[in-house]
Amino acid sequence: MIDRNPVEMDLIPQIRSRWSPYEFSNRPVEAWKIKTILDAARWSANSFNEQPWRYLLATRDQPQELAKLLSCLVESNQTWAKHLPVLMISLAKKTFSRNGKPNRVAVHDVGAAAAQMTMQAEALGLHIHQMAGIEISKIRQLYQVPDDFDPVAAIAVGYPGENPDLHEDYRKKNHAPRHRKPFDEFVFTGSFGKPSEIIK
């Protein structure tokens, strides 16, 4: 396990090793592992068991589908993601199926599913890099996405490794130091902005 994260507490190995690389091996990802990480997402907690997540999926053994999905990423993400063996785009259903009312937490639940997928991927020796940089209108057009669904993010999946064709700018990002906000900037008690005593 690569310990890239300067954590303060004794976190599980999957969190300690999780990061979003720009460089992946060209090794294909086995179909059973793809299905396993999708099953992890499937069993994520969600409001009223709506399961609002949907995924567009393409792999290297379907080159036309992979190129189609890759074209839905912004150009800067295409630059490095074109080397990936697996790409996905997540979508969120905006309303509850049971009553048609807006699902205020749909995107939250899709994010929770993505986190669970990511932890399972780490346990299987894979890395995931999620991307906000997607072409939403293009996704809607190319995949005939219903109005009740919003594209959320792209998800790159692959094995860790080196890619000699990776642009130098992304290689530098790959090795840049990582940091996170201190606890007192995001955990409050009593009022917003007042750091909680428990984190001191």
Describe the 3D structure.
With 200 residues, the protein is α+β, with helices and mostly antiparallel strands. The protein has one domain: NADH Oxidase (3-Layer(aba) Sandwich), CATH 3.40.109. It is built from 7 helices and 4 strands; from the N terminus they run ααβααβαβαβα. It has helices spanning 13-17, 31-42, 63-70, 75-81, 106-123, 136-143, 168-174; strands at 53-59, 86-93, 127-131, 149-158. A 4-stranded antiparallel beta sheet has the order 1-2-4-3, sandwiched between helices. α2 (31-42) crosses α5 (106-123). It is globular, with a radius of gyration of 18 Å. The mean pLDDT is 92.
CATH class: Alpha Beta
Order of helices and strands: HHEHHEHEHEH
How far is the N terminus from the C terminus?
A: 29 Å
Q: What is the multimeric organization of the chains shown?
A: single chain
Q: Number of helical segments?
A: 7
Overall mean pLDDT score?
92
Shape: globular
Q: Major sheet: size, sense and barrel closure?
A: 4 strands, antiparallel
Q: What amount of the residues lies in strands?
A: 15-25%
Integer count of domains: 1
CATH 2nd-level architecture = 3-Layer(aba) Sandwich
The H-level CATH homologous superfamily, spelled out, is: NADH Oxidase
Low-confidence stretches: none
Helix percentage range = 25-40%
Named CATH topology: NADH Oxidase
The strand line-up of the biggest sheet is: 1-2-4-3
Q: Radius of gyration in whole Å, from Cα?
A: 18 Å
